[in-house]
Amino acid sequence: MNDLNIWKRAERIRKLLGEDSSSPIDLFALTNSINGLSIVNYPMGENISGMCVKGKHSNVFAINSLMTLGRQRFTLAHELFHLYYDNEPSTSICLKNIGAGNEKEIQADQFASYLIMPPLALTEMIQKLKESSSGVITLNEVVFLEQYYQISRQAVLYRLIQERELSHQDAEKMRQNIIQSAINLGYDDTLYKPSPLNKRYRTYGHYIKLAEKVLEKGLVSRGKYEELLLEAFRSDLVYGEDIDEEILD
Amino acid sequence: MDKALINLGTKLKELREQAGFTQSNIANFLKVDQSLVSKIEKGERSITTDMLERLSTLFGVSVATLLTRYVEEQTMSYSLRAKDIDTNDYEMISAIHRIALNSDFMTEKLITSSKEDNDHE
Fold first, then answer.
1. Closest A-chain CA to B84
2. What is the pLDDT of residues B78-89, one digit of tens each?
3. Prediction pTM value
4. Cys bridge to A171: A157, A238, B113, B116, which one at CB 3.0-4.6 A?
5. ipTM of this complex
6. Cα distance from B37 to chain A (closest Cα, Å)?
């Protein structure tokens, strides 16, 4: 499949999710709104970024919660490719290295990159940034882009190399002091950190609604309901932990 | 030899090979000796319900599917080599499949209940 087809697919998914073809998107909110999809945060090994399970009736994305939030967003976009465009296996386990692995994985990474940073919008943005930086992309522009699209440094560098806006050599230098470079420009560091400790194991979305429904309809006992929640790492819902003081504003 | 054991062994071997796991990977995951996995695959040894349950979540199939003879389709696809998956990742795969299987269990409960409601009307 060529890049144009992958771009078209990314565009189609943006449309499906109710997004225009140029703005930054909130992938955590968007994936949570997909019918029948559960998202699981789980600390995985260092080579794995995520997993997509296409079940008989519903689907599950698992995201490596030890990766930075920016990288987690890229993985969510990558798993969307498996969900919508990978017809073969029911379970895909995905590599952490962007642009590596088999053909499907490389396509899924390209799709993720286009979904988050649509080619036309990115080109325009790069032009604008270059106008105010003597025609070259520097670390400042890289930080701007990763903050604008809320995505990891690695994902931005990968794309800028592809777009021939950065050399491998220049990109390499930008792979260090990531947090400091963002802080120095006045940004918050949340993007560069993993999920908070109390949310590294957690299931969101469809699964929780299903559990509530089967309990409400009397289709499972309270004991079974609690077991289902505990197996999905939602002890907070069983024991009432972690509920912060509510503010209505 | 027990025909059911042979069927289960054949099924286990097929699923394991499709997923690219070795007998040793399965043995580590089940915390048993590799020779036991080999014997189970040959239908020479029985399997505990606990092991059956753990294998079903590792492969993301129901226990019933594990006990039926045919493997209908590929169940797992890895973009990484088995050596890139560490021991804890087998637990991870199993935990995530558990969630997917639970989702199917809950959905099937709802479907059955809705069918029963329709039949009563």
1. A47
2. 666 666 778 789
3. 0.92
4. A157
5. 0.92
6. 23
